[in-house]
Fold this protein.
Amino acid sequence: MISRQVYATPSWLRASKSDCKRCLAYFQSCRDLVLDGPMTAFPLNDDEKPFDPPDGAKPKAMKPRDAATLILVRGGREVMMGQRARGHVFMPDKWVFPGGRVEPTDARAKAAHELRPSTEALLRQGGLVRRPPRAFALAATRETREEAGLVVGGQRGPDLSKLDFVCRAITPPHRTRRFDARFFMADAEAVLADDKPVAADDELLHTRWFAFDEAERLDLPSITRFVLKEVRARLAGEALHPPFLRWSRGGHSMERLKA
C-alpha cells in the first residue's frame, strides 16, 4: 500500500482572490506589451490594431517593397491626406498620407540639407536595411510632389534635416501587396513654399488639409490610424521612439527603435 503524505501549503504560496486578480492583470498587461509594444502612448481598440485583420483567401507571401510616406502637419492642428482611387488593388477608397515605393534614383537625388545624424541612425535600425537612409526621405518628398502637387524644398532640393522619422511598418505576408514603409512627418510651414495641394495624378484623389479629429473620422487603414495617433502624441509633447510594426511568430508585434 502506498501511503500519501499531505503537506500544508506554505504561507508564501497561499494567494488570496485579490492576489490572483493582480496576477491576472499583470499577465494581461504583459500580453498587451507583446502586441502593442513597450510604453505605448495610447490604448488601441480592436479596429485600431497596427494592421487590418486578414480576410478572405490568403495569397502567397511576397517580399515587401521599400516605401516611404510623408505626413505634413500644418499649424499643429491639420494634416494633409488624400483618398486612394477605387480601382487600386491595395487599399482602394481608403484615406492615406502621400507616399509610395522607393525608386533606385531616390538615393541619388539632391537635397538642400541631409538627414540629422540621429534620424539616419534610427532609419538603419530594425534589421537589414539595403538602401541609404536618405533614399527613404527623398522618396517620401518625391511622392508628395507627384501625388499631392506639394513641393518640399526649393531648387536645391528638400531640407531633409526638417523631417522626423516616426514609424516603420511591414505589411503582413497574407496581403496582395506588401511594403516595408517608413513614415516621416514635417511641419508644412517649414518645408513648403506653397501649402495648396494640386491634383497631380490619379493615385491620390481629393487631397486636402484635415483637422486631426476630422481625419480620424475618415475611412482609414488601421496602420494610418495608428500612425496618426503617434503623430498627435508627438505634437502633444510626448518623446516617443519610432515604433516598428511587423508580423512575427504568427502575430503582429511592435518594438520601439532606438539608435
About this structure: The chain has six helices and nine strands. Residues 1-15, 19-45 have pLDDT under 50 and may be disordered. The first helix runs from residue 17 to 36. Residues 42-256 form a domain with the Nucleoside Triphosphate Pyrophosphohydrolase fold (CATH 3.90.79.10).
